[in-house]
Amino acid sequence: MECPIPNSLPALSTGPVRILFVDDDSDIVAAAGLVARRHGMSLTGAGNPEAAWSLLAERAFDVILLDLNFARGQTSGEAGFRMLADLMATDPRRVVIVVTGHSGINVAVEAMRGGASDFVIKPWSNDALAEKLKRGAALAGARRAAGGDGAGEPALLLGDDPAIERVRRMIARIGATSASVLVLGNAGSGKSLTVDLLRRQRAGEDAPWVEIGMHDAITIAVLEEALRASRGGTLVLDRVEQVPRSVQPFLAGQLGGRRVLAMARDDRQGVRAALDADLLARLNTIEIELPRLAERGEDKLLLARHFADRFARRHAIVPRPISEEAARAILADDWPDDVRGLCQAIERAVLLAEGERIEIADLALGDSGHGDVRPRAAAADLNLDRAEKQLIEAALDRHRFNISRAADELGLTRAALYRRMAKHGL
Ligand SMILES: Nc1ncnc2c1ncn2[C@@H]1O[C@H](COP(=O)(O)OP(=O)(O)OP(=O)(O)O)[C@@H](O)[C@H]1O
User: What is the CATH number of domain 294-363?
Assistant: First the structure.
């Protein structure tokens, strides 16, 4: 299961130039694809913004060709401008070339003001299009070189829910600053992804980045080490609601001289109850609260479709649409394991579905399917290394590969669990 590993997405490679063309007209996309191929570039089409975001979350593209209208008869360009604004807000280094009809010169100028690098007017001359794509790719290379490698890695906080929209705008606004941020939300709701996106806004920076998971046995010595290592850079405190009261005054007094990004698996009220006012004041210059997936309405389906596409590609399986009945069930479920739970359910469904669509039965909703898994062999086998592997396997199984929960049960940080999983080849 790949859902719990937010950093596992591919980095930009140095292969052929990759272009994403967002346009609902498949003939136009095919025509542009021919031009691109003739010039040694690869072009992928997306029929609408939703499909485009799904691709962008999964793969890196050098240039985005963006038509401004996505439905027959639409001419206002409104949907395209919204997508352009979101593209630039989520990564200001993107290279976007807008595509407009022949009367669209004013529209093109407006798009350039909105961050587009260039425009193409339909019908285009193939040579002019190829030239613009090559120039766009060169610009993308230059922006990546200036911004560091991380800038090109895809990772997106997807969703149309107004609360998620606000989080994206907040990340765009504060990402490059040194403000401390407290990210609140249910387990699996996207806190680590949010922190990762904040990090990408400062890609290329050479300052230290130190992450540490809090738990009730954390000692001042461990904190001192993390503080020393993060001086002049960023300190990420995961599960900050678990910092013991006894060390809170020490921590509050030592956080200066670095940016602090803290995550709490709790809501505002819970965090206020768990932390001293002094520590809280040091952490929450900016507070970002991720809503539960259960409260995100249609986003459940948007994310489900995204994960279905992602895992079909990752496992080289023909993509299957989600049946209407399954879609209704996805919308009705309250997803206690949040986005991670949905991601895992869809990956399982993609792997197990046998029909033409992903059906409700493939989702195994409300069925953990694992029961009580005990590390039976561990007691009999006194070899420490093997016992460790068995315990980790049992914890991963019990928590359906939810890394955070497995790590909690094992008394490890997520990073420590990942390291041990790698050691045992899990
Ligand atoms: N809005 C979103 N769009 C796309 N993917 C998402 C979104 N939110 C979460 N995910 C994905 O869901 C998974 C869980 O998210 P993440 O690890 O950020 O949760 P978390 O809140 O940090 O959980 P925990 O409290 O357990 O650490 C990750 O694979 C992440 O990439």
Answer: 1.10.8.60
pLDDT of residue 426: 80
Average pLDDT over residues 185-193: 94
**CATH topology assigned to domain 6-152:** Rossmann fold (3.40.50)
pLDDT of residue 390: 81
* Residue 409 neighbours by CB distance under 10 Å: 16
Cα-to-centroid distance, 184 and ligand 1 (Å): 12
Q: In the chain, where are the structural domains located?
A: 6-152, 162-291, 294-363, 376-423
CA distance 295 to 184: 15
Whole-angstrom Cα distance, residue 414 to residue 7? 13
What is the 3-state composition of the chain as percent helix, strand, coil, each rounded to the nearest 5?
Answer: 50, 10, 35
Q: Do the beta carbons of residue 230 and residue 258 sit within 8 Å?
A: yes
**CATH code at 162-291:** 3.40.50.300
Q: In what order do the strands lie in the sheet with 181-184?
A: 209-213, 234-238, 259-264, 181-184, 286-289
The answer for residues whose C-beta is within 8 angstroms of residue 64's C-beta and 6 or more apart is: 19, 20, 21, 22, 52, 87, 94, 95, 96, 97
3-state secondary structure of 97: strand
Question: Residues 144, 93: contact at Cβ < 8 Å?
Answer: yes
Q: What are the tens digits of pLDDT across the range 303-351?
A: 999 999 888 888 888 889 999 999 999 999 999 999 999 998 999 899 8
Judge if 6-152 and 162-291 fold alike in CATH terms: yes
379 C-alpha to ligand 1 centroid (Å): 34
The reply to whether ipTM tops 0.90 is yes
pTM for the model stands at 0.66
CATH number of this structure's domain 376-423: 1.10.10
Rounded distance from Cα 9 to ligand 1 centre (Å) = 13
Residue 6's pLDDT is 35
Cα separation, 225 vs 271, whole angstroms: 25
Cβ pair 33, 376 in contact under 8 A: no
From 223, 259, 229, 257, select the one nearest 243 (Cα to Cα): 223
Which of the four pLDDT bands, split at 50, 70 and 90, describes residue 132? very high
- Of 193, 261, 346, which is best to mutate to test ligand 1, by the most ligand atoms within 8 angstroms of its C-beta? 193
